[in-house]
Amino acid sequence: MSLIRRSNVFDPFSLDLWDPFEGFPFGSGSSSRLVPSFPRTSSETAAFAGARIDWKETPEAHVFKADVPGLRKEEVKVEVEDGNVLQISGERSKEHEEKNDRWHRVERSSGKFLRRFRLPENAKTEQIKASMENGVLTVTVPKEEAKKADIKNVQITG
User: Fold this and answer.
1) Is residue 155 part of a domain?
2) Whole domain around residue 87: which residue ranges?
3) Looking at the domain assignment, is residue 38 inside a domain?
4) Share of the chain above pLDDT 70, in %
5) Rounded CA separation 81/134 (Å)
6) SHSP domain location, by residue (predicted)?
């Protein structure tokens, strides 16, 4: 697993590669122009693009948990782009097929995944920590302490 800082996010509002219209006759995956086109993604990427990720905020940090079963930490990247966009990506390779193998069912997805999250201003991106245990990637982004208002007692005269 590597933490890489990058800049120049191509489209900061396009946070996922998954195309819900891929394969439909009116969607971006076809030559039809009935619906405005979205950036294209390969079907291999779209198949695994829906990596499930939870994002919770605690008083101390933003915590992301991603289900990435079967992946080693070396196959997952955690990056910060443009100073405040957290990007989690990786790839699950297809199982090697032997010539004499006969498959009865293939349900597990393979391919690349990529998820992006715009972090709030209070995120300390230089202190991000990531760990992986039992197929769950946990990314912790510490938060800056909220500044407490400086309250002064004022004597009321009158």
Assistant:
1) no
2) 52-93+110-142
3) no
4) 64
5) 27
6) 44-158
Threshold 0.85, pTM exceeds: no
Q: What size, in residues, is the chain? A: 158
33 lies in some domain: no
pLDDT tens, residue by residue, 15-52: 544 455 555 554 444 443 444 434 444 444 444 456 78
Other beta carbons within 10 angstroms of residue 132's beta carbon come to: 19
Instruction: Give Rg (Cα) of the chain.
Output: 21
DSSP the chain: -EEEEE---S-TT--B---TTTTSTTSTTSS--SSPPPPP--HHHHHHTT--EEEEE-SSEEEEEEE-TT--GGGEEEEEETTTEEEEEEEEPPPPPPTT---S---S--EEEEEEEEPPTTB-GGG-EEEEETTEEEEEEEBPPPPPP---------
Where residue 63 sits, what CATH number does that domain have?
A: 2.60.40.790
Both tokens of residue 139? 């990314």
Q: Are 101 and 38 in contact, with CB atoms under 8 Å apart?
A: no
Q: Structural domain tally of the chain?
A: 1
Chain position carrying tokens 């996922």: 16
